[in-house]
Specification:
The chain is mostly beta strands. The protein has one domain: Thrombin, subunit H (Beta Barrel), CATH 2.40.10. The protein has no helices and seven strands.
Length: 109
């Protein structure tokens, strides 16, 4: 029997890469937390990271700084992103898939 492949929805290839990451809600209605972590994988249009926080939900908009070096580093690049998927990955952790929507210099995609 042939296995049917699930269609790929990504427009760009995903690469396993650990990069510094800073995430915070874009709306005060979603809280005022800030999380600094590491990506699991990245693509031109998105990032994926694992967290223990429970505040994340599908559709939530975030400010995502990737790569994140230090609070005032000129190498930081902040995006507006939207959570596309939240995965339960076990051991109280959740995988968060974020689609990057815009930066200060780019139009919405």
């Amino acid at each position: 029997m042939y296995q049917t492949r699930q269609s790929e929805r990504r427009r760009t290839r995903r690469v396993k890469m650990k990069q510094g990451l800073r995430v915070r809600p874009s709306s005060p209605e979603d809280g005022t937390f800030e999380e600094i972590g590491v990506t699991t994988n990245v693509s031109q249009d998105g990032v994926y990271f694992v967290t223990q926080r429970g505040e994340y939900r599908e559709g939530m908009r975030l400010f995502v700084t990737v790569p994140y070096h230090s609070p005032f580093s000129p190498q930081n690049y902040e995006y507006l992103g939207q959570i596309a998927r939240v995965d339960e990955v076990g051991n109280g952790q959740r995988g968060i898939a974020v689609k990057l929507l815009a930066t200060n210099n780019k139009q919405y995609r």
